[in-house]
Design a protein that fits this description.
single chain; alpha+beta; Alpha-Beta Plaits; two-stranded antiparallel sheet; 19% strand; globular; binds iron/sulfur cluster
């Protein structure tokens, strides 16, 4: 599910610095796990999607590091770490 347009505009103010390894990974073999489906609905940035094979995919660009997907899906299906120092989201309010 993608974020609503108003939400996208607000999220577009944030700055994201890439670097290092992916800080969230779907564990190998968990792409079709039912527990991962929750991420399709709870990620506020709409970064999870379902492909034609019925597998959940994650595009980390725009991750807010909120941890909602980790709580909703659990660590059996997701590896979740904060990004390395200097990388990740910088919030812009206003
Ligand atoms: S940490 Fe938050 S923003 Fe990032 S992928 Fe998980 S739910 Fe989405």
């Amino acid at each position: 599910m993608s974020a609503p347009e108003g939400m996208k505009a607000k999220l577009g103010r944030n700055v994201f610095k890439t670097g290092g390894e992916a800080h969230i990974r779907i564990k190998p073999g968990a792409e079709k796990d039912e527990r991962l489906r929750a991420a399709l609905y709870v990620c506020p940035a709409g970064l999870y999607s379902l492909n034609k094979q019925g597998e959940v995919e994650l595009d980390l660009d725009g991750c807010l590091e909120c941890g909602t997907c980790r709580i909703a899906c659990g660590t059996d299906v997701l590896e979740w770490y904060y990004p390395e120092g200097g990388a990740g989201v910088q919030f812009r309010f206003g």
